[in-house]
Design a protein that fits this description.
Elements lengths: L8 H11 L4 E2 L2 H8 L13 E2 L4 H14 L3 E4 L18 E4 L6 E5 L4 E5 L4 H10 L2 E2 L12 H6 L7 H4 L6 E7 L5 E4 L13 H4 L8 E8 L1 E2 L3 E9 L2 H14 L4 E8 H10 L13 E9 L5 H14 L5 E4 L3 H16 L7 E2 L2 E3 L5 H15 L4 E7 L4 E7 L6 H5 L2 H14 L18 H4 L2 H14 L12
Parallel strand pairs: 2-4, 3-4
Antiparallel strand pairs: 1-2, 5-6, 6-10, 7-11, 8-9, 8-10, 12-14, 12-15, 13-14, 13-18, 16-19, 17-19, 18-19
Helix pairs in contact: 1-3, 8-10, 12-14
Amino acid sequence: MSNRKTPSPDLLSRFAAIVGGKYAITDPAEQEGYLVENRGLYRGRTPVVLRPGSTAEVSQILKLASETDTPIVPQGGNTGLVGGQTPSESGAEILLSLTRLDRIREIDPSSNTMTCEAGVILAKAQEAAEGANRLFPLSLGAEGSCTIGGNLSTNAGGTGALAYGVARDLALGLEVVLADGRVWNGLNKLKKDNTGYDLKNLFIGAEGTLGIITAAVLKLFPRPRAVETALAGVASPADALGLLNLANELAGDSITGFEFMPRIGFDFMRDYMPDRRDPLPTPHAWYVLIELSSQASEGLPETMQELLAEAAQRGFVSDAVVAKNLQQAQSFWRLREGIVEVQKYPGGSIKHDISVPVAAVPDFIAEASTAVTKLVPGARPIAFGHLGDGNVHFNVTQPEGADTAAYLARWAEMNAVVHAIAAKFAGSISAEHGVGRLKRELLPQVKDPVALEMMRSFKQALDPKNILNPGKVL
């Protein structure tokens, strides 16, 4: 890829003609929002941003790209956190924005499916499902701007994964444009289809390196008739785990959210986001946000009360409050979202997206916290996330008064420490954010060699010219 040159003006004109001049962006100022990764870690260049309006146009673009050996970087809402959607600095790659593919083609309540194009904003998909009295449960902090295609390409997780699974579990079928421009129509609604390999799962989580997802058939669920939300104060991650195990015993499939957060995150919100108020009267070392949902219209409040009472009796919970209405429930979730947002204010933050077996979460947090504060005295670990599925966002804020650039320069060094502890607990270095550019060089250290060989074989078979998102994942 390093030998590739910027496409000639004539070739760029041929690409632009496919989408029309209005949707071929060459002005640097207009391109700016497409070229910088969400956290500012990566900034690239491109001779043109193409914004196709149909699968047919995507097909024509890739056919021409294949014929001319032109690399293509697909992008959805540009909310990714590992640089998978950002072009390189070479200026040789064309950026393909899929945000104009924004139609919801069909909602089929009887089949509990919805067919969306890749550029549909996640929040729009949720609203469309709600309009049909159904639930599309994928939920992320960036749902107001991330897209269905990006969610599938990164196999997004989010807060609903405990009950409903990750993006891969929510897709029945795909429409994909291959590297040579051919279109695979795999848009089926079938739960049972044993006619060979399950091809869709090759493309989900592949970050646009094997093909470009242009549409998907998504699973819908009946909307809950009752929802109960509570915020509990607990003394430790071990107590949070005890509360989770008890919730599984008493509430079972009714658990649709189980998030944990540290006190330091609440302190940061107190200092930088004073509209996010702790609803409990006294501080606690850790907090758990619990959501129960049911198709039954009665009985859920009693289940929540029983759970919290039993948890208090067993010493798992120090205090708790149940939301009295939807507004208060939303305020609890805003605290969870605030944990993510507020970390940009107190200084540099080195981030890790880890998953370990659920039972190992407390020990992982303890060991990783000790290790990073030994590596960087005064560093402030902020461990939070989806306890129910073992996904820990283990972020580390710089020491107070430290030089931010010098601190962030130790990103790889701190990653090595944290990732080694995750490996000790048979965990993963990428739970839901993907690999992209950020973790590409780490894969050989953590991935089974045979698995890597198979991944390279798939890449060679489906993209022999390496024009699809080159330099990402592999």
